[in-house]
Automatic annotation (TrEMBL):
GO terms for molecular function: RNA binding. It comes from Nostoc azollae (strain 0708) (Anabaena azollae (strain 0708)). This is DUF1092 family protein. Residues 107-261 form the RNA-binding protein Tab2/Atab2 C-terminal domain. InterPro entries: Tab2-like (IPR009472), Tab2-like_C (IPR046761), Tab2-like_N (IPR046760). It holds the Pfam family Tab2-like_N. Residues 4-104 form the RNA-binding protein Tab2-like N-terminal domain.
């Protein structure tokens, strides 16, 4: 099993004796059995300092993977990890680290970028809202030959304490000939959550990567807007759990990709 660290390196509320800003390095494993803290003045906040701290924190064993959720931390941590041959995983799903930051009352919100339009060659032919019962959703798709299948254990309904009767909302995209191309793009973009945004027109916004946002669909239809509001309400009941399914058509014979998403921000 891989040894994983969740790591943040950012300006802290702390100051040194001269009133200078201190940068704080936080390292923990997913269980928080390991917790490592170090600070340095902003003038020393570089990859060399980080490399030394990683060696100290990993004196017994360095990790196989360092997970980073903050875009501003990624380049420095990546450079230090590269010095030590450690793989980097940019991901918003650093639950233990974010819990620690919340306990320290440190800000963890990432500035949201304006959403960008999806490239035209990725557009599907049509899409619709859908829902599946929590008790069926995992078995429904793990038993099918789906090229891209992402059902992380931490967002499975049973691990979120959801009753089997809760309806899990989602969006189905019929991609036609672009179906596999769209599924591969979603995999590379690292889909995180799919949210309804009311406006003129209304839209479905895909959050992906660490801070990317994409306009997956727009619509100006009262009936679709009503369905979108039901989708949002169901997400609240399902503790943010929702899904995205890409398939060539509505024959239910072939699937290109399925993502069970937890709305982790």
């Amino acid at each position: 099993m891989s040894l994983i660290w969740q790591t943040d390196f950012y300006r802290s509320p702390l100051r040194d004796s001269a009133g200078q800003v201190l940068w704080e390095l936080l390292i923990c494993d997913p269980t928080r059995k390991l917790e490592y803290v170090a600070t340095c003045p902003q003038s020393q906040a570089n990859s060399n300092w980080l490399t030394e701290q990683f060696q100290l924190a990993g004196a017994e064993k360095l990790p196989d993977i360092i997970q980073v959720f903050r875009p501003q931390s990624l380049s420095l941590i990546s450079a230090a990890a590269s010095n030590l041959g450690i793989n980097i995983e940019p991901t918003r799903s650093t639950l233990a680290l974010k819990q620690w930051l919340q306990e320290k009352k440190y800000p963890i919100l990432i500035d949201k970028l304006p959403p960008e339009p999806l490239l035209e060659n990725l557009w599907g032919e049509e899409w619709r809202f859908a829902n599946i019962s929590a008790g069926d959703i995992v078995d429904e798709f793990t038993d099918r030959p789906i090229p891209i299948l992402q059902i992380p254990e931490f967002v499975q309904p049973i691990n979120l304490g959801l009753a089997s009767t809760v309806r899990i909302p989602g969006v189905v995209i019929y991609g036609g000939r672009q179906s596999m191309r769209l599924a591969k793009w979603l995999q590379e973009a690292n889909a995180v959550s799919l949210n309804y945004i009311a406006g003129t027109p209304d839209g479905l916004i895909l959050d992906a990567g660490l801070a990317d946002r994409w306009i997956l669909a727009t619509f100006d239809d009262d009936e679709v807007a009503a369905a979108a509001k039901v989708y949002t309400q169901r997400k609240q009941v399902s503790k943010g759990l929702h899904f995205l399914l890409v398939q060539p058509d509505d024959s239910r014979m072939t699937y290109s990709g399925f993502w069970l998403l937890g709305g982790e921000d």
